[in-house]
Amino acid sequence: MRNSFLFTSESVSEGHPDKVSDQISDSIVDLFLSKDPEARVACETLTTTQLVVLAGEIRCKGVYENGAWAPGALDEIEATVRRTVKEIGYEQDGFHWETLRFENNLHGQSAHIAQGVDEAADKDEGAGDQGIMFGYASDETPDLMPATLDYSHKILERMAADRKAGTAPFLEPDAKSQVTLRYANERPVEATAIVVSTQHAPGYYFHGGEGDEAKYAELRDYVKGVVADVLPAELLTANTVYHINPTGRFEIGGPDGDAGLTGRKIIVDTYGGASPHGGGAFSGKDPTKVDRSAAYITRYLAKNIVAAGLSRRCTIQLAYAIGVAEPLSVYVDLHGTAAEGVTEAAIEQLIPQLVRLTPKGIRTHLGLNKPIYRETAAYGHFGRQANGDAFPWERTDLTDKLKAAFA
């Protein structure tokens, strides 16, 4: 266990091209789940200059059945895509919700996948694919998330809120943040570096003597003010270094500046590198896919373990085989922070008694067959709320049972 080290996590805004793609894909998931709670969706999105392309497989009663779209379904899909882009804030020449070209290449789910996954009289619903999923929690923040990622997300969330409220009119949708903290005895004690790069209105750049210095100072001071509001005051010191738009001009952004694809920000979506990642993306997938649902249940379990005081940090891994309902393995790592009398082996035995870890059991326990996913697709899937309510995997309703098991 190291006494002192630096650790860094990054976040990207809802206007980042990959996040635009994630939000479109999850808007499509929500659309189909609103029509059919048992819908199957695997939706990938490509975004680039004035273009959005959907591809993937679906099955949805009343929308796509027997190889045909229901009347009006294609128009509703396109309207959903355009509305999502509009809500993010793109009304630029290079990417505009109203004038962009749209291609829909969604088609029916493979019957060969369906036959191995669907529930039947002689078998439980199986996992939609093989894979490993990880969940993590840490007592570094009230949300039980790694502090570096938590602060990176919140910087950009605040900037987006100010942009949409009109209080920071020089901001445009595309942005990135990065927070480096120095840890001592596994606790964050100082922010050593803050990086924020944000798309901006014309004239607000300054690098190597370019641009309007007064406008750049306005942008710089605004960002530093946001950082001061988000990070605890004791972490910001005279030694904290700020890199605000370090390359200078950043007027061309979003899908016009760089193509976006669903599922390319999986570390931003999860724990900022503080925990392993199984490799599967979440966005664009309905909750029968264990890439998504098992990642949510492992977060839920890890968070409850830390919230119950059984450890200060917790990582949980589950593994699945396609078409098989029960997980192949359950693994727990408490990182040497376990409370007295608590062991990883005991928790591994306890977890399946608390929650049935089949795909259907997970969805039932967390209530996942609902259109709740668009809100997950920016600023992380964990440690946050959407529309004022915590995501179901952020509940801590197992703590009493966990405490009782080790009383």
UniProtKB/TrEMBL annotation:
GO terms for biological process: one-carbon metabolic process; S-adenosylmethionine biosynthetic process. K(+) binds at E44. Pathway: Amino-acid biosynthesis; S-adenosyl-L-methionine biosynthesis; S-adenosyl-L-methionine from L-methionine: step 1/1. Residues 252-395 form the S-adenosylmethionine synthetase C-terminal domain. The keyword Transmembrane does not apply. It is found in: Cytoplasm. Homotetramer; dimer of dimers. This is S-adenosylmethionine synthase. The gene is metK.
